[in-house]
Amino acid sequence: MSKMPKLIVCLGFLILTSMAQAQSIQVSASVNKNPVMVDESFILSIVANGEVDRDAFDSSFLMKDFVVGRTSISSQTKMINFDTTRTTTWSTVLIPRNKGRFTIPAFNVDGFITKPLEVLVVPATASSSSSSRDLFITTNLDVAEAYLQQQIRYTVKLHLGKDLQRGSLSSPTLENADIRQIGKDKEYNEVVEGRRYRIIERSFAIIPQQSGTFTIEGPLFEGEVIDNSRQSFGFFNRSKAVNRVGPSQTITVLPIPSNYDQHWLPSNFVQLDDEWQGNTREFIAGEPITRTITLTAIGVVEEQLPQITSIYPDSVKTYPDQAETTTVEKDNTLIAQRKESIAIIPSQAGQLVIPQVRIPWFNTMTQKTEFAVLAEKILQILPATTQPTSGIPSSPVIQAAAESKPQTSMPTELKNQNMTMSQYWMWLTAGLLVLWLLTLVFWYKHVIALKAATKHASNSPARNSQNEQSLWKNLEKALDKNASLETQTYLALWLGHTTQDKQATLAQSLKCIDNQSLNEAVNILLASRYSKTQTEWQSTALHQILRKLRKEGSIEKYKKHNLSPLYPDT
Questions:
Q1: pLDDT at residue number 493
Q2: Which of 65, 173, 176, 457 stands the most exposed, by the fewest C-beta atoms within 10 Å?
Q3: Which of 90-104, 126-140, 169-183 has the highest mean pLDDT?
Q4: CA 453 to chain CA mean position, Å
Q5: What's CA 312's distance to the chain center, in Å?
Q6: Whose CA is closest to 124, among 99, 142, 149?
Q7: Distance (Å, rounded) from C-alpha 221 to C-alpha 207?
Q8: To which H or E segment does residue 440 belong?
Q9: What is the pLDDT of residues 7-48, one digit of tens each?
């Protein structure tokens, strides 16, 4: 019974100790900057004096208004006159995405509540301090509206006003989208608002997989720059950690048109090619013919390419190989290819008709369905040749009278046989050499044609079979919006249609028409896009000139009728 009072006293002592310890815990929140700029990082610090769990802090609900970076945890223990003090600090990097006033709510750390904080976020240009713009990010989209699974080019520029010691740049983020970097980083210098910056430019291809209006969150940069304002010792430079986030971009993704019922392939250029292996002039029944069909599309990835459906008559046997697909990058654009090889064995001689191949695709520039076509092919199949069996000379019969009459035909037959074998190997070697040379020639032509098609697709506007009224309507829409890029594209199409040369470029059409007023107006348009001192372009003058020319029908009056040169430039 004497032990019971002691146990009660110990328990009471422990309870009082824990209560005193709990009452001594204090939790506070603070930021190292206020106000801050839109793309500038600041540090939120949560300090707890007392024994708390290191995992008690949760910053996930801050993602609504901020980009939440990494959180570092530090602990410190002090003992003074047997009085022990423990301090735990959580430091989280936050970057605001929008300007305005934001409230950092109270945090619950092991049951202890911090006070809420109000942070003022100002635009980047609101600060007059030059040091605040030592580093910033800009983002840009090539289009503000795109179709489902159409490539969007996203460009990021990192502006550095100080020497960079180390750093990393993440990719932009968009839900339900395929995002990949295209091309290599570009590095150059540029003057922005009177200050010289080192620019690091990086491009991404974004292929959305869902229609609607979305926000592309900018990339996050984390790094260190050399800070000359801090004192350094010896050969060591002091560095400063920096974090920046790129501005968000809004994109509208259009769905597949309701009247489109083909395989969905949005692109601005699609082409079909085929290649026949071997002697393309002589096809023999029973001998295999290898046909390789290549589908090329710009602005898509290989997973978007459809199967190539080719139909063959019942008189042939077909043995297809496994298809080969690839995606390459050129001029900051994705190019996808699909190759399908098939062995064709005709069973009878005569005329063999191979039907045409059609692949539907959606032209994102004209917003119409088009077809990549391989024309129908007619092959002449020769009958199979029967190779005669070579006779083997038999040994002469030895008779008793052979001694008096020698056989003189044996050496002649052996000589003829040796000559026949020698000629056979000579012709066989020559035939193999010719086949090898023909293979090299066809391969070279195929590579040149593919390069020319890719160059034409990336440099020339898409040609189509639209009528003059439809082209003029699209051109007027671009002029009304003062859209220089669309105006340049549809102006080339309309002038090519009007001058009856649909394959002509804008420069060729202007040279053919030779109208001084039109040339000057187009030069102003091009200067607004490509000159170093770019200005805002107004379409009024060009619109009036084009309306007058169309109304008077006077383009033919200015059109030159020169003969083609006898020796054209190659």
A1: 87
A2: 176
A3: 169-183
A4: 19
A5: 36
A6: 99
A7: 23
A8: helix 409-459
A9: 665 565 555 455 444 445 788 888 888 888 877 788 888 888
